[in-house]
């Protein structure tokens, strides 16, 4: 069997993201089989290829914890385009997957796409027929008929939600996704659109086959209902209160931060009140809430919510809200893998893991902007660019 060894000045290794200097990793059959503390230890031989990345930093392949394959905020009227036909949306998905992979995202968690596009693309990627991140999928996102969720489909009553949950499971999804609130609320009372009975029906169906649940939930009563119903992961949490931070922590649930919708003014002004002052007020409230969640120590992943090639920027925003570089990096690698239940196969540079790797110009533990300077991407040991 051929052996590939990659040397780099800095390699961020293990589940605790430890910086190793002048080390090397050995790759066989797509997996990391050995880590050398010092490049002088590496063997040589005819069947061994050595790549020297020089002064670059090697990190685990990044994981986008909140993706939608066919939702692409880079194009105009991107929300309206969620009503495009299946072919059009699939073509878009193929492009976003390829783009994200080249930006260093080797795994992505999909929070709902129409027509089971994520389920189909997951299979095709696994079989090597298309290029893109490995996918963790939820199939059809489920929302109430009067609720928010451009990428979701409408259902009403526990039995309708249950039926769709079962159909998603039949298609082989990895988890179930529901929508509880709007994105940016802009009112003092945060609307919530699903009843506790509907939530419980979905959680029950997920648990009966050993999978998890995620809910698009900004805050308010809906967030309490999600925790009480047993939802495993809360997406966005823009308006999470101090009390709710404690509640999420005590219940040992995950959160996924998607900060651009509040911190990137272009997106914020698109989604919150039309007047600028109103939007800036929302931004202030959201930043305070997210800072509270971060300082409260909630376990988190970071996602783009359809801002393809934008994961590095989301990571930088989370650091600006108070998270350490180490925690931010964990939120797009090792902790993200735990959240996605793929930490036994990817998410860290550890022996036995898939060789999903990104070489950066710069060390993200010192400077997170290095995440934007992707020099090379490897997925299952194969060089992508
Ligand atoms: Zn989303």
UniProtKB/TrEMBL annotation:
GO MF, any single term: hydrolase activity, acting on carbon-nitrogen (but not peptide) bonds
InterPro entries listed in its UniProt record: Amidohydro-rel, Metal-dep_hydrolase_composite, Metal_Hydrolase, Metallo-dep_Hydrolase
Cleaved signal peptide residues: none
Limits of the Amidohydrolase-related domain: 57-382
Annotated protein name in UniProt: Amidohydrolase-related domain-containing protein
Domain of life: Bacteria
Species this protein is from: Sellimonas intestinalis
């Amino acid at each position: 069997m051929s052996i590939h060894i990659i040397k780099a000045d800095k390699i961020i290794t293990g589940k605790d993201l430890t910086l190793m200097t002048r080390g090397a990793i050995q790759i066989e059959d797509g997996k990391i089989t050995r880590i050398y503390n010092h490049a002088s230890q590496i063997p040589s031989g005819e069947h061994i290829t050595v790549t020297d990345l020089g002064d670059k930093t090697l990190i685990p392949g990044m994981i986008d914890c909140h993706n939608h394959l066919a939702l692409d905020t880079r194009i105009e009227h991107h929300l309206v385009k969620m009503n495009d036909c299946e072919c059009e949306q699939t073509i878009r998905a193929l492009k976003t997957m390829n783009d994200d992979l080249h930006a260093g995202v080797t795994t992505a968690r999909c929070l709902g796409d129409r027509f089971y596009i994520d389920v189909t693309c997951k299979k095709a990627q696994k079989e090597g027929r298309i290029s893109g991140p490995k996918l963790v999928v939820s199939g059809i996102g489920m929302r109430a008929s009067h609720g928010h969720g451009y990428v979701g489909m409408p259902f009403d009553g526990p039995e309708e939600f249950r039926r769709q949950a079962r159909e998603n499971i039949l298609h082989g999804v990895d988890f179930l996704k529901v929508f509880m609130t709007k994105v940016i609320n802009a009112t003092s009372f945060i609307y919530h659109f699903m009843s506790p009975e509907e939530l419980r029906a979905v959680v029950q169906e997920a648990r009966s086959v050993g999978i998890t649940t995620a809910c698009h939930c900004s805050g308010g009563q809906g967030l309490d209902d999600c925790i009480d119903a047993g939802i495993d992961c809360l997406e966005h949490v823009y308006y999470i209160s101090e009390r709710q931070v404690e509640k999420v922590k005590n219940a040992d649930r995950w959160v996924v931060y998607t900060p651009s919708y509040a911190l990137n003014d272009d997106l914020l002004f698109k989604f919150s009140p039309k007047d600028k002052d109103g939007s800036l007020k929302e931004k202030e409230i959201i930043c305070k809430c997210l800072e509270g969640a971060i300082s409260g120590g909630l376990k988190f992943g970071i996602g783009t919510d359809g801002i393809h090639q934008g994961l590095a920027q989301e990571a930088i925003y989370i650091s600006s809200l108070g998270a350490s570089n180490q925690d931010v990096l964990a939120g797009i690698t090792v902790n993200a893998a735990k959240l996605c239940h793929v930490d036994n196969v990817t998410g860290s540079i550890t022996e036995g893991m898939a060789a999903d790797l990104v070489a950066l110009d710069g060390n993200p533990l010192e400077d997170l902007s290095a995440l934007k300077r992707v020099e090379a991407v490897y997925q299952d040991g194969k060089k992508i660019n």
